[in-house]
TrEMBL record, chain C:
One of its GO terms (molecular function) is quinone binding. InterPro entries: NADH_UbQ_OxRdtase_chain4L/K, NUOK/Mnh_C1-like. It comes from the Bacteria. It comes from Peribacillus muralis. Its main location: membrane. Its EC number is 7.1.1.-. It is a multi-pass membrane protein. It is an enzyme of class 7 (translocase). Keywords: Cell membrane, Membrane, NAD, Quinone, Translocase, Transmembrane, Transmembrane helix, Transport. This is NADH-quinone oxidoreductase subunit K. GO terms for biological process: ATP synthesis coupled electron transport. The keyword Transmembrane helix applies. Belongs to the complex I subunit 4L family. It catalyses: a quinone + NADH + 5 H(+)(in) = a quinol + NAD(+) + 4 H(+)(out).
């Protein structure tokens, strides 16, 4: 397998993504963890680009690296927490969890290893956003609308959850 | 009247239910309810008897259960024996209830007492009317319950409690024998009906060995109820109950149930010589055995109790020597004079508040009514000429002689002598000699108590005249009417000297008792020294209770101890192991329920991972 | 054209998923747990997009689906944080192992 630019790009991006994930596990300060995760999210956007999904990549950057990370940071700042997230006790628990994850990974990897699907030429990269738009508003219009309702519900629910206690707290 | 005879046991049952439901609120008024209903029973019984004198046997049944091809029936039957028993039972019950009105005065649980009496009377009447063995067994057990309740009436006294339990358990031993006998009989004949059983017996369907076995098993039931050796020990202890109860249950009715049972099943017994021998020998031995014990007892009621056992032995002896009429006749006369004696004894106890005859004496002048009545009963039971006991005892001696069993005959004669002796010993110790009680303490019983005694006294004197060698053998002929082939003739003929011998023996016993206890011409230790071995054996009732205690009771206690250890260590250990392991599991489980979401998730994922790994290793999607 | 094979993307997604899982099950801070769950969702998204290009029948549907997933993830993050806030107000903690009042 000759080394192509695509491969180099993939390995670079993948390395950054995994590094971010590992840092998330190993870092001790909560804020640092979130920052480490931003790298992962960004590199996942890069993966999307490699998979000729430009629109999803842009959405990934906007939603995850932008919105969700910021929301999480707000959450961290609004709650009083120990600066360091000291690991929970129970060595045997972590060990057995690692063992289980390893077993899971191996089992899934065996499945991936044997996977062989012939590559077909696709036209996903041509006017990607237009294709998604056509698909969304023709074939998936009802799920799209349901999704918008769900978002509304989540919005209202989040506000109610955050506000209700405030009133109670004021009264008491 | 016989169609409505089913009402006879219903009346006492109504008494029982009414008094039970009233919950003791009626107090002494409860007694009148009991007496009125029992009177109704008595009147109906008499009417039934009168009708039965001329009419044939009346029997009615209805289907109760049908199991496969077998029909179980329920109903009632009025034959000669049943009609006679109905009258005896309801009559004695009525008199005892009237008597109790005076005797139990001031008793807290007055209506409870009458409720129990009603229940017992119901059971006993039902027993004697039963047309088949299942129904008989049913009432047989109810009689046991009734007697248990009445003996244990003073349940707050330890002795009464023990006596009630003892009576219940000892009779239960006999009941098991009866039950097995009934089951075997059903196995052999396929029926519980008396008639079908007797037909099968006479047709020779049943093998001889089986008949003997069944008859002896049924006799074991009678042994338990009638207090025959070796199951007699409960009867003296049962004297812990109120005295009227002793008169009703342990003189006239319940103990007669065993005799009644043998008499009812008489054709079955006749079919087996061995069984007849067993009945006769057991009866004869019990008669002399109990009589010898009675000669040294010091408790007035215990003397009468042993006397009852002895007389029941007499009846068994009569039945065992084919003297059907003699046995039933003696059952009837005995019911009268023994009930009289118990009621009179109750009257004495009522007057001086002790049961120890060594502390009595000189009461003849003080108890102007009780004394002569007691004397009448004593004379009757001793076989004094021309009183009821004389005729019935004579009939038994004749039957034994006619049967040709001279050993049993001599046993009966010796017992007659002992009977006369111990009964007059009792009489003289109570009524003759120096008074040992303060005069003003002694009070004659009220009229309500004397009246039943008077009625019984008259019957004890004249009751024998329905069956005499001189004025006709009316009872016997009536009893065996239509059944002469089976039951034998109504009267056993015997040499005249037997009667003379009986009279002589009775007079000798009376004279001896007179010399020793009344005139004190002879020292009390003339017969047997007080510290001699024989005296001690007699006083301790041949150590039967002790023998039972050291053999059967200890054996059962040993088994019980062993089983209790099995229970405690093996069963208990198992149970503890089971509960412990479940508890341990629960504790582990509750530890898992820590409320930690991550732990839950982890365990769920662990399970998923294990499944996935197994899936991958065993093939799954790989192949 | 020799490109990056499908399995490479899938393995990357698997690694990220495992990391997210480990974080979600061991971290004590509830915010980090939430973020770990987002990471797991992202790993799933990679799979969707990868199959949309290299699947048996390549089509744009996978990308559309990943958009839906992202939307739901956003909603989940918002509601999760709101719950976290009210929980924090009541119990003064964001440590997951102290939130155990549901036991028994």
């Amino acid at each position: 397998m000759s080394v192509s630019g695509e491969l180099i790009a993939f390995f670079g991006v993948a390395l950054v993504a995994i590094l971010g994930g590992v840092l998330l596990i190993t870092l001790t300060k909560v804020v640092h963890m979130v920052i480490a995760l931003v790298f992962t999210f960004l590199s996942i956007a890069g993966i999307y680009l490699l998979l000729s999904a430009e629109f999803v990549a842009i959405v990934q950057i906007l939603i995850y690296s932008g919105a969700i990370t910021i929301v999480m940071l707000f959450g961290i700042m609004l709650t009083k927490h120990r600066e360091n997230d000291e690991p929970s006790k129970g060595g045997w628990r972590k060990f057995s969890l690692l063992l289980a994850i390893a077993g899971f990974a191996v089992a899934v990897y065996l499945g991936i290893y044997d996977l062989d699907i012939p590559v077909q030429p696709t036209a996903l990269h041509e006017e990607n956003t237009k294709q998604i738009g056509i698909e969304l508003f023709s074939k998936y219009v009802i799920p799209f609308e349901v999704m918008s309702v769900l978002l509304l519900v989540a919005l209202v629910g989040a506000i109610v959850l955050a506000k209700k206690d405030n009133e109670e707290g004021d009264r008491s | 009247m016989m169609e409505n005879a089913w009402l006879i046991p219903i009346f006492p049952l109504v008494t029982f239910l009414v008094l039970l439901l009233s919950g003791g609120r009626l107090r002494e008024r409860g007694a009148y309810i009991g007496i009125i209903f029992t009177l109704a029973s008595f009147v109906l019984s008499v009417l039934a008897l009168v009708e039965r004198l001329t009419a044939p046997t009346y029997k009615t049944t209805m289907d109760w259960l049908s199991i496969g091809g077998t029909q179980l029936t329920a109903g009632f039957e009025i034959n000669q024996l049943n009609a006679l028993m109905l009258v005896i039972v309801s009559f004695v019950s009525l008199l005892v209830q009237i008597y109790s009105l005076g005797y139990m005065k001031g008793e807290e649980r007055f209506s409870t007492f009458y409720a129990y009496l009603g229940f017992f009377t119901f059971a006993m009447l039902g027993l004697v009317m039963a047309p088949n063995l299942v129904q008989l067994y049913f009432f047989w057990e109810l009689v046991g319950v009734g007697s248990f309740l009445l003996i244990g009436f003073y349940f707050y006294r330890q002795e009464a409690k023990d006596a009630a339990k003892k009576a219940f358990i000892m009779t239960r031993i006999g009941d098991v024998g009866l039950l097995i006998g009934i089951i075997l009989l059903f196995w052999e004949t396929g029926s519980f009906e008396y008639e079908e059983i007797f037909q099968a017996v006479q047709a020779g369907v049943i093998p001889d060995g089986s008949i003997t076995l069944i008859a002896i098993l049924i006799f074991i039931g009678a042994v338990g109820k009638s207090g025959q050796f070796p199951l007699h020990t409960w009867l003296p202890d049962a004297m812990e109950g109120p005295t009227p109860v002793s008169a009703l249950i342990h003189a006239a009715t319940m103990v007669a149930a065993g005799v009644y049972l043998v008499a009812t099943m008489f054709p079955l017994f006749l079919a087996s010589d061995a069984a007849m021998q067993v009945v006769a020998v057991t009866g004869g031995f019990t008669a002399i055995f109990a009589a010898s014990i009675a000669t040294v007892q010091k408790d007035i009621k215990r003397v009468l109790a042993y006397s009852t056992i002895s007389q029941l032995g007499f009846m068994m002896l009569a039945l065992g020597t084919a003297g059907y009429v003699a046995g039933v006749f003696h059952l009837m006369t005995h019911a009268f004079f023994k009930a009289l004696l118990f009621l009179a004894a109750g009257s004495v106890i009522h007057a001086i508040h002790t049961q120890d005859i060594e502390r009595m004496g000189g009461l003849w002048g003080r108890l102007k009514w009780t004394g002569p009545l007691f004397l009448a009963g004593t004379l009757a039971i001793s076989g004094f000429p021309l009183l009821s006991g004389f005729f019935s005892k004579d009939e038994i001696l004749m039957a034994a002689w006619a049967n040709g069993n001279y050993f049993l005959f001599s046993l009966a004669v010796i017992t007659s002598f002992l009977t006369a002796f111990y009964m007059f010993r009792l009489f003289f110790m109570i009524f003759a000699g120096e008074s040992r009680i303060q005069a003003e303490q002694v009070k004659e019983s009220p009229a309500i108590m004397l009246l039943p005694m008077l009625v019984l006294g008259i019957l004890a004197v004249v009751g024998g005249y329905i069956q005499t060698p001189w004025f006709g053998t009316f009872l016997g002929e009536w009893l065996v009417e239509g059944n002469e082939a089976v039951l034998g003739s109504g009267h056993s003929e015997g040499p005249v000297w037997i009667m003379l011998l009986a009279v002589l023996i009775a007079l000798a016993g009376i004279f001896l008792a007179y010399m020793i206890y009344a005139k004190t011409k002879l020292p009390r230790e003339w017969l047997v020294k007080k510290d001699s071995t024989l005296y001690r054996i007699l006083e301790n009732k041949f150590y039967i209770d002790e023998i039972y205690y050291f053999t059967i009771v200890q054996l059962i206690k040993g088994i019980g101890l062993f089983l209790s250890y099995v229970e405690r260590f093996i069963i208990g250990g198992l149970v503890t192991t089971v509960t412990g392991s479940i508890e341990g599991l629960g504790k582990i489980g509750s530890k898992l329920q820590s409320g930690q979401v991550q732990q839950y998730g982890m365990i769920a994922f662990l399970g998923l991972a294990v499944l996935l790994v197994i899936f991958a290793l065993t093939g799954g999607y790989l192949r | 054209m020799t490109g990056v094979p499908l399995s490479a993307y899938l393995v990357l997604a698997l690694v990220l998923f495992c990391i997210g899982l480990y974080g979600a099950l061991t971290k004590r801070n509830a915010v980090i747990v939430l973020i770990s769950i987002e990471l797991m969702l992202n790993a799933a998204n990679i799979n969707l997009v990868a199959f949309s290009k290299f699947g048996v029948t390549p089509s744009i549907t996978g990308q559309v689906f990943s958009l839906f997933t992202i939307t739901i993830a956003a909603a989940e993050a918002a509601v999760g944080l709101a719950i976290l806030m009210s929980l924090y107000r009541n119990r003064k903690t964001v440590n997951v192992d102290e939130m155990d009042i549901m036991k028994h």
